[in-house]
Amino acid sequence: MDLIPALLAGLFGLAIGSFLNVCSLRWPNDESVVSPRSRCPACGRGIRWHENLPVVSWILLGGRCRGCRGWISIQYPLVELATGAIWGGMVFVHGVDIEALRGALFLTILLGIAASDARTYIIPDQFSIGGTVLGLALAFASPEITWIESLLGAAIGFFLLWFVAWAGEKVFRKEAMGGGDIKMMALIGAFTGGWGVALSLFLGSLLGALIFGPISMRTGKLVPFGIFLALGAAVTYLFGDLIVAAYLDWAFGPAPPP
User: Fold this and answer.
1) DSSP for the chain?
2) Domain ranges, ordered by start, for the chain
3) pLDDT of 99-124, one tens digit each?
4) Percent of the chain, pLDDT > 90?
5) pLDDT of residue 236
């Protein structure tokens, strides 16, 4: 019986994922997510409701538009599946609880940022600023973080990355950090607090250097840092306490028993 709420949340997450695809595609171009309705990116044909069922329609259509037979990106079902897994997983771990909602919203926003940054190198304010406001509001009801910790985390995240961008520009005489990344760190701080900002930034920088660094060196492409910040923040939210505890044990030895 405990699985039923998680399964229902997963189905709800699939629908959220379908909308998330629209947001990550339209918000970077300052387009409305309300109208026009979903359409084929190749021929512009409007997609009917029964052709827009999360994951199922993509499979039944063979990943092609019913009209022009052009390919439909696999990103659509992957984002829907990932969002469904996020919502179902949060409810499975936390139950029907405020922390399940907080975690699901945070991870969903991070997924939207990663999808948007991967395509356009843009992190829409709707994700970063809107997510920051949402994180601050949810902190008032969360047992995991206080509103003061959330507010301080948002401030630390914003001004820390703003300083990094400012110092980098002074040293290298060119833009070192996008404004979207700076605002995204406020979002991360609002959900994870000050320590979460530091760990997310460290993990994001490490992952970006290891995964995309060699590609950037060979091709000259800019690192889509939002993707790796999102990964670092997701790992921090899910496993941050374990990572910090393991590091402290390694650095200072295990804590003495009480």
Assistant:
1) -THHHHHHHHHHHHHHHHHHHHHHHHGGGT--SSSSPPB-TTT-PBPPGGG-STTHHHHHTTTB-TTT--B--THHHHHHHHHHHHHHHHHHHH-SSHHHHHHHHHHHHHHHHHHHHHHHS---HHHHHHHHHHHHHHHTT-SS--HHHHHHHHHHHHHHHHHHHHHHHHHHSS--S-HHHHHHHHHHHHHHHHHHHHHHHHHHHHHIIIIIHHHHHHH-PPP-HHHHHHHHHHHHHHHHHHHHHHHHHHHH-PPPP-
2) 1-96, 98-258
3) 999 999 999 999 999 999 999 999 99
4) 61
5) 97
pLDDT at 255: 63
pLDDT band at 43 (very low <50, low <70, confident <90, very high): confident
**What is this structure's pTM?**
0.91
